[in-house]
């Protein structure tokens, strides 16, 4: 991680990865689709959840940097997914649902085999009620908890992990760095074949960074939030 700055001095260059530039892939995609968000999606889905064709997959925050990739990878495996925009099967806006349990029962009457959790809180609680026996939950993020100032009611349906024999595991993409070359080949090939689309939400100028960051916690972004420090015309003049 670096600061919000135009130039950065890296103390441990071994932590850097040289990009093999393919002009068919936008350079900024190495911050998202082919970077940490994409790798997080890949590891959580394949290493923790082992998706199978015909299974029902629910991804919270499915339009975000990680969620949009999880959904498309699951579809490529023959799973049934939420939201049609990226080839998924259905979608709902959690902000418009008074009863999350009822919403999940409406969209997943058969139950959920895989839940990729980016939200936590009430969404996780509702998902636990709707998991199928031997379901899998990859706990990637808890964005609902970032601005919480009190303990709240907590997760009430955790006993379903026992009753339904659910596998629930938190993870970091850094646990799986040995898989990065395999991920890069897999996702790049699908992107170039047109099997995967990727959405970015770009703001210009370093001064836009604070508002861009704040917007992540209020759901204002669609896709990967990127702050472009150098305008395209300036970058082209440096090449």
TrEMBL record:
Keywords linked to the UniProt accession: Oxidoreductase
Any one GO molecular-function label of the UniProt entry: oxidoreductase activity, acting on the CH-CH group of donors, NAD or NADP as acceptor
Signal peptide range: none
Source organism, top-level taxon: Eukaryota
InterPro entries per record: ADH-like_C (IPR013149), MDR_fam (IPR045010), NAD(P)-bd_dom_sf (IPR036291)
Keyword Aminoacyl-tRNA synthetase: no
Keyword Transcription regulation carried by entry: no
Domain Alcohol dehydrogenase-like C-terminal: residue ranges: 64-185
Database matches in PANTHER family: PROSTAGLANDIN REDUCTASE (PTHR43205), ZINC-BINDING DEHYDROGENASE FAMILY PROTEIN (PTHR43205:SF35)
Name this polypeptide is given: Alcohol dehydrogenase-like C-terminal domain-containing protein
Species in which this protein is naturally found: Linum tenue
